Amino acid sequence: MLPIVDHPKAARDFVTDESRSQWHDDALWFVRTKRDRQAGSVPEWEYLRERASAIKTETIANLADYLEQFEANATARGVVVHWAADAKEHNEIVLDILRRHDTQRIIKSKSMLTEECGLNHFLEENDIDVVDTDLGERIVQLRGETPSHIVLPAIHIKKEEVGDTFHTHLGTDAGASDPQYLTEAARGHLRGKFLAGEVGITGVNFGVAETGGVVVCTNEGNADLGVSLPRVHIACMGIEKLIPRLDDLAVFTRLLARSATGQPITSYTSHFHGPRDENSELHIILVDNGRTTLRQSDTFRASMHCIRCGACMNTCPVYRRSGGHSYRATVPGPIGSVLSPSKDARSHKSLPYACSLCGSCSDVCPVKIPLHHQLLAWRSELVGKGLLPWSKRVSMKAASTLFRHPTLFALAGRMGRTSLRVLPRFATHNRLNTWTKARELPTPPKQSFRDWYAANRDRPDDKRRGDQ
Amino acid sequence: MSVALFVPCYVDQFYPDVAIASLELLEKLGIDVVYPGGQTCCGQPMANTGCNDDTAPVARRFVDIFADYDAVVCPSGSCTAMVRHHYGSYFDDDDVAFRHVREKTYELCEYLHDVVGIGDGIADQAGASIDVQFPHRVSVHQSCHGLRELGLGSQSETMSESPDKVLSLLKLVGGIQIMPLQRVDECCGFGGTFAVNEADVSAAMGRDRVGDHLQSGSEVIVSADMSCLMHLQGITRRQKSPVHVMHVAQVLAGRNVPVTSN
User: Fold this and answer.
1) Residue of A355, A378, A440 with shortest CB distance to B194
2) Interface residue A9 vs chain B (CB under 8 A)
């Protein structure tokens, strides 16, 4: 069983380190404002979001048919299509391909699916060396960490810290923090790995059912470099990454990079239609890993629309201040807090509550997933499963009772206000009261509105639903 | 036309003047407004915790109490959004009383702007009825539920424009100066039980919002949701920040800036 994630506790170190939290917040807010500018430059932005949502709804509704169409068209192009029910099957398929080619040198471009499946760890256990070639992913890999963001994996690390990591692992000058110097060092280091690589592994941004092709979007060109020299390319693809037609792709590529990083388009949008020649192989692994279960849920099905742009993370005021690692999940932030409990509700029960329900994620989402409503829906699911802590269940029962009995409510209110006025400060502002840790309590008035109204305005006809 | 005033539970107990100001504002406009007795809460605290069984009877009571009125007006975007967008799970869709209450429950600024027609540019003569002065620099805190669930203004995330109802009313106030914020509609971090469940993150969000209002040169943070302001006021008082909070109803009803320390 997975350990239980306590988000408030997991976030504490990051959020109470005020300078780091604020720096992280500013960095991501900058990305959000870039996104706003790009979205604003497309007059049909809201139409594109509608289209993208409609295309995904239709795809997910007919997923089995589209997957079969995709498999048939890809196979006709010489692709070997594999089906993996879960992470374990996915990893074993990859290992099997590697073993058949008797290879130890794997170069990998960014794939959140392989993170989700724990592929790196699995391969290392099988004595196979994997090199992540996305710069951010390489940084977290060298540091023995995991990505804290699905598009900006090293967004939580400062350039000085990158300098220290590179000094240790790549031999750069001690204390160096110039981004250009560090990037050039990484480039030199990775170039050697690219030249030596024997198998290239990539993720997939879009699979096109109509053509059997897959599309990979990167900014660094590392996916292209990583699969250009090796004879074998393994593309790992979640089954929700499918779109029906090539024409649909334009809707998504216009939305993806603008939403993700505020660029009009990613630097590289690479299409792979079958292996590049008769001496090469292209394997596509179609991975379920819980997606079919999600698809069966009327409430959460729309979360399968996700194109992994990360815009919900960039805009989320909680994510920006608590950092991606506080979610203890491959996919953090709003979408991660919807997806993680579907895999293991008990372990991730605090995540749907790590949200102020501000709704910014739903409005920024390029495929219109109602994220904050899904997080709210998760809360009732968790209560239904008996996973809400006892203390909270009892306090909500008590609140419900008060709100059903106006006389009792008025009395409790009066007693509460009086206590606040007469009790010494240490009794109300102490560490047991999390409200007062950083905030003052409101000054309680002597008279509630209902008492004021009874004294100043009460009219007989208002008594039609009296305090009985 | 008989209008019922719904006063959120925490406003009733902690901010009675917000309700008095709302009542006086509606009375001054000649609206037949009453405060139905027996009302308590819309049920949002339980609903947002996921406790649907504890919410259902509270929602039922709410509908029963307000079903006989032509309209329900509430000085809170959040509570109004609860009724309009989240009551659906607790009622049959053919429940006539529920449908009536859902359709006829308005947030205060929305009611003044859309139904009474103040500040919408059409019935501007009605602007004369907001005959008050507030010669101060104010900054507007957009509550998330008012903005994103009720559409009281344009959200910064979406690329479609809609009129800002809170701002258009405030602009009718004499002498008022609206100060610009850097982040026009970021969440303050209140979020109901979120404020205590995630106290550290909530407070960090609140401090950042207060900082933005302070840098704008504002003297008063004005909002259509007192719950956001309760949280922000908790922070300004702790930090001894030189900025007050007021509900938009208080400004529109001609209240002065509070004389006590913020």
Assistant:
1) A355
2) no
- Which helix (H) or strand (E) segment holds residue A197: the answer is none
Q: What pLDDT score does A428 carry?
A: 86
Q: Give the residue among A314, A298, A302 at the shortest CA–CA distance from A338.
A: A302
Which pLDDT belongs to residue B185? 97
pLDDT given for residue A432 in this prediction: 80
Residue A272: alpha-carbon gap to chain centroid: 26
Could you give the CA distance from residue B221 to residue B233 in angstroms, rounded to a whole number? 9
Instruction: Delimit the CATH 3.40.50 region(s) of chain B.
Output: 124-252
pLDDT above 90 for A123: yes
In tens digits, chain B (262 residues) has pLDDT values of 799 999 999 999 999 999 999 999 999 999 999 999 999 999 999 999 999 999 999 999 999 999 999 999 999 999 999 999 999 999 999 999 999 999 999 999 999 999 999 986 655 554 557 889 999 999 999 999 999 999 999 999 999 999 999 999 999 999 999 999 999 999 999 999 999 999 999 999 999 999 999 999 999 999 999 999 999 999 999 999 999 999 999 999 999 998 765 5
Q: Which residues of B touch A48 (CB under 8 A)?
A: none
What residue in A sits closest to B22 (Cα-Cα)?
A449
Answer yes or no: do A21 and B204 touch at CB < 8 A: yes
Give percent helix, percent strand, percent coil of chain A, each to the nearest 5: 55, 10, 35
CB contact under 8 A, B51 and A417: no
User: Both tokens of residue A180?
Assistant: 């250009």
A vs B, Cβ pairs < 8 A, gives: 236
Q: Is A78 left (phi over 0), alpha (psi -120 to 50) or beta?
A: left
Mean pLDDT (whole number) for A417-445:
90
Pick from B57, B186, B235: CB nearest A317: B186
C-alpha pair distances (Å), B158 with each of A363, B109, B220? 6, 21, 28
Nearest CA to CA, how far is A356 from chain B (Å)? 4
The closest CB to that of B155, out of A363, A383, A462, belongs to A363
Q: What local confidence, expressed as pLDDT, does residue A34 receive?
A: 98
Q: What is the pLDDT of residue B259?
A: 77
CB contact under 8 A, B196 and A317: no
Which residues are paired to B48 by β-bridges? none
**CA quadruple B107, B116, B26, B16: dihedral, nearest 10:** 10
Chain B CB within 8 Å of residue A388 CB: yes
- Coil, strand or helix at B106: strand
Contact list in B for residue A8 (CB cut-off 8 A) is 197-201
How many whole angstroms separate alpha carbon A194 and alpha carbon A198? Answer: 9
Percentage with pLDDT > 70 across chain A = 98
Q: Which residues of B touch A400 (CB under 8 A)?
A: 43, 46, 51, 54-55, 57-58
pLDDT, position A375:
98
> Side chain identity at A375, as an amino acid letter?
L
Å between A147 CA and nearest CA of chain B: 21
Strand ranges in chain B using DSSP code E only, listed in sequence order: 3-5, 33-34, 71-74, 105-107, 137-141, 177-178, 220-223, 244-247
B113 CA to chain A: closest CA distance, Å?
Answer: 23
Taking the domains of chain A in order of start, what are their residue ranges? 42-289, 391-465
**CA-based nearest distance B123→chain A, Å:** 29
| CB-CB neighbors (< 8 A) of A397 in chain B | 51, 54
Tell me the C-alpha distance between A150 and A205, whole Å.
12
Q: What is the pLDDT of residues A222-254, one digit of tens each?
A: 999 999 999 999 999 999 999 999 999 999 999
Return the CATH architecture of domain A42-289. Answer: 3-Layer(aba) Sandwich (3.40)
Tell me yes or no: is domain B124-252 CATH 3.40.50.
yes
Q: Please give the model's pTM, rounded to 2 decimal places.
A: 0.96
